[in-house]
Design a protein that fits this description.
262 residues; 7-stranded parallel beta sheet; 7 strands; 42% helix; globular; binds NADP nicotinamide-adenine-dinucleotide phosphate
């Protein structure tokens, strides 16, 4: 067995939604470092272009709002105009909404469920042909959904729809995996813990305080996220199907509960 190239992505084409910043950018940079050509997408064209310029010639901006079915189809059309096959799709774009129970509005459900649950489904559906074109039993294509530990355990905030959406996406990952494995398209998910980003301002602005509550005593950094995404995307992760990998420094699986002894 030669493990030298187990994690390489040379010759692979990837599309990362929400790739302009935060977790999506960490993943895009990791894929590029392993030799992939990476299309990054988000609503703001200027932000996509700026990030692509930073990440180099193998990063191509493809701006699009993917919160609607029409948006997902439009992105798939833009992609199909320039590429025949898609080896790796990362459904990363996501939104959160926090508001007290008494006032939590319907828009706080629609916005979050549309982007976090419906969009990964409909974007994968819209890109089914190029994913199938790239996939073979020897080298499966990959769909990686970015979920969250908030789909696995409760956080202290009133993020009702976010909790429900991420839990739903973890389960949807399994259901889509069961169907798409028939076409050699492996669907998996990564559930991040605390990573500094625009969405997770607490980790970004108060990382040291947040770190105290994490078993590993630090927040997640670029290598943690890129490493897991590269594993799933590459030959190394070819036999992982339908699973969610939790990347959180132990919050979900290695945190001690409160004592209930007298
Ligand atoms: N950071 C964490 O600690 C953490 C923890 C667990 C899970 N996550 C998950 O990780 C993913 C990325 O989060 P992040 O923390 O990196 O957030 P972020 O910094 O806010 O980045 C979100 C990205 O998604 C794009 N986006 C937002 N709405 C979009 C839409 N309608 N269509 C297309 N793109 C859209 C944004 O760009 P535009 O504004 O230009 O559209 C941006 O590129 C999310 O699914 C989030 O739930 C994050």
């Amino acid at each position: 067995m030669d493990t030298t190239n187990l994690f390489r992505l040379d010759g692979r084409v990837a599309l990362v939604t929400g790739g302009s910043r935060g977790i999506g950018k960490m993943i895009a940079a990791g894929f590029i470092a392993q030799g992939a050509k990476v299309y990054i997408s988000s609503r703001k064209a200027a932000a996509c272009e700026e990030t692509a310029a930073q990440l180099g010639p193998n990063c191509i901006p493809l701006p699009q709002d993917v919160s609607s079915v029409a948006g997902c189809k439009a992105l798939a059309e833009q992609f199909a105009a320039v590429e025949d096959g898609l080896d790796i799709l990362v459904n990363n774009a996501g939104a959160a909404w926090g508001e007290p129970f008494e006032n939590f509005p319907e828009i706080g459900w629609d916005k979050v469920m549309d982007l976090n649950v419906k969009s990964p489904f409909f974007l994968t559906q819209a890109l089914y042909a190029p994913l199938k074109a790239a996939a073979s039993r020897e080298r499966p294509a990959k769909v990686i959904n970015i979920t969250s530990i908030d789909g696995q355990r409760l956080n202290p905030w009133e993020t009702y729809s976010y909790h429900a959406s991420k839990s739903a996406l973890i389960y949807l990952t399994k259901r889509m995996a069961a169907r798409l494995v028939q076409d050699s398209i492996n669907v998996t998910s990564i559930a991040p813990g605390a990573f500094a980003s625009e969405m997770n301002k607490a980790a970004r602005d108060h990382g040291e305080t947040i770190a105290k509550g994490i078993p590993a005593k630090r927040i997640g950094v670029d290598e943690d996220m890129a490493g897991t995404a590269i594993f799933l995307a590459s030959r190394a992760g070819d036999y992982v199907v339908g699973d969610t990998i939790t990347v959180d420094g132990g919050l979900v699986n290695a945190a001690l509960g409160t004592s209930i002894d007298a």
